[in-house]
Structures are given as structure tokens and as C-alpha cells.
Amino acid sequence: MKKIIIYLFIIMIFSCNQSKTKECVVSKKYLTEFSKGTDNNSPPLNPFLIFFIEIENNQVLELNNIALHDFYNTFYREEFSLEEFLCLIYNNNITIDKSFLKRYENRFKSYEVNLNSLTNLQDLRVKYFKSKGNTLILKNNLEENLRVSILYSFFKDQYYICQGDENYFMYKNNDNVSD
After folding, report:
1. Cα separations (Å) of 22 from 63, 153, 164?
2. In which order are the strands placed within the sheet that holds 59-64?
3. SS3 sequence, 26-69?
4. Among 178, 153, 179, which Cα is nearest to 170's?
5. Whether pTM exceeds 0.70
6. Which of 2, 120, 162, 177 has the fewest CB atoms in 10 Å of its CB?
7. Spatial contact of 98 and 104, defined as CB atoms under 8 Å apart
């Protein structure tokens, strides 16, 4: 009986690791842009890229790439490589407790997102964006939580999001779609 339980436990662990590995394969090409040019002594090459980290209770952090690397170096560098961290955090395999963030609210701001009504990206494109070639430009006059909810929806669909002087720009690199 003990052998059967041990085998079941091993199979369960193996299947969990395989699903996380598969998630990482799917998102790896997309996430490489967030780690380009990084080492211990220099900032990332793409500082204006925006990354969202999901927190409990429909809350997300919106971080530019420099803040993302600061977040990683401060809290997760000892546990994970940068690539592992990006994969885990993008695929929501690390849970960040809201109370943890209270201690750092002067450094990281969270937003409440409502994704229930934001499932159709094509409708969102028509309603909230101007198109310029392959680039989408988010309209400026949106309430903050709605803006973050919309951007987060596109982020989870592997759009790159950058913040300019007054606007958010985004594009999807179709090379990121895995085979």
C-alpha cells in the first residue's frame, strides 16, 4: 500500500511539473523580451515594457521593466533564475499575498481589475484603441482601473505594452506564437 501511495505521489509531482513546463514553453518566446540584456549590474534593454503581476482578489501590479527587475532582485533572486521567475509569475504559479505588498506600497502600486466584461479583445480594440500599422494606441481618457484591466487582458494574450509620454502603445509579435 505504501508503494502505491509513493508512486501516486511521484506521478502527481511529475504531472504538475510537466504542466508548468508546458506553460513555460508557450510563454518563453514572449517573456524573453523582458529579460534581454540583463545582468547583475545593468538595467534591462527594454525599460518601457509593461509587465503585470497578478495578486489575490482581482488585483494586479503594473510594473515597467526596470521595476519588474527590481521586484525580482528584491524578493525572488535567491529562489529562481530570472527566466524561471518570469515564467512562474506570468503563468500565475507564484501567489503574491496582498498583505506582503502593504509593506511596499510606496514602491509598488496595485490596481483592481475586472476581467469578466473584458473577454473579447476584438471588441476592446474597436472601443478603446486607435490603430497605427501593427501598433495599437490606448485612448487617454479612461478611468485608471479600467485602463489597467484592458491592458492586462492584452498582456495575458502576449501583447507587448509600452508606456510613452502620454499614451500606452502595444503590439503583438506573431513570432512569439509557439509551434
Report:
1. 25, 21, 33
2. 50-55, 59-64, 110-112
3. HHHHHHHHHHCCCECCECCCCCCEEEEEEECCCEEEEEEHHHHH
4. 153
5. yes
6. 2
7. no
Lookup result for grid cell 500599422: 133
Q: For the chain, give every domain's residue range.
A: 27-176
Sign for the CA dihedral angle at 160, 120, 126, 53 comes to negative
Amino acid at 149: S
Give the whole-angstrom CA distance, residue 115 versus residue 164: 24
Beta strand extents in 56-147 (DSSP E only): 59-64, 110-112, 129-132, 135-138
Task: Give the contacts of 56 (CB within 8 A, at least 6 positions apart).
Answer: 95, 96, 97, 98
Q: What are phi and psi of 17, to 5 degrees?
A: -65, -35
pLDDT in 10s for each residue of the chain, 179 residues: 555 444 434 444 433 443 445 567 778 889 988 888 766 667 778 888 999 998 877 888 899 988 898 888 888 999 999 999 999 999 988 878 777 677 777 777 888 888 776 778 999 999 999 999 889 999 988 999 999 999 999 999 999 999 888 889 999 886 654 43
CA distance 139 to 55: 26
Please answer whether residues 85 and 71 qualify as being in contact, where contact means their C-beta atoms are separated by less than 8 angstroms: no
